[in-house]
Design a protein that fits this description.
By secondary structure, the protein is an alpha+beta fold. The protein has 2 domains: 34 residues; 33 residues. The protein has a two-stranded antiparallel sheet with strand order 1-2. The chain is rod-shaped and about 80 Å long.
């Protein structure tokens, strides 16, 4: 049988826990580093309140979510 001191057991438990947290952090961070790209035709600028918003519909006129004014896409 292996004899294990109490302080060594606590140190091993803490080390294993920290390694598990580190591995979880590394794998979750890798998933977040995906490239996000946004087509410039979906970015709208409100001419009244200068708010920038995203509208994925391909309309020529959009309503600003902040002030409610109608905006036409500049060509």
């Amino acid at each position: 049988m292996i004899s294990l001191d109490f302080s060594l057991a606590i140190a091993l438990y803490t080390f294993i826990f920290l390694v598990a947290v580190l591995l979880f952090w590394l794998f979750s961070r890798r998933q977040k580093e995906k490239d996000l790209s946004l087509d410039p035709r979906f970015i709208w600028f409100c001419s009244v309140c200068t708010y920038t918003f995203v509208n994925t519909k391909e309309d020529k006129i959009s309503v600003c979510p902040r002030c409610g004014s109608y905006n036409r896409k500049a060509e």
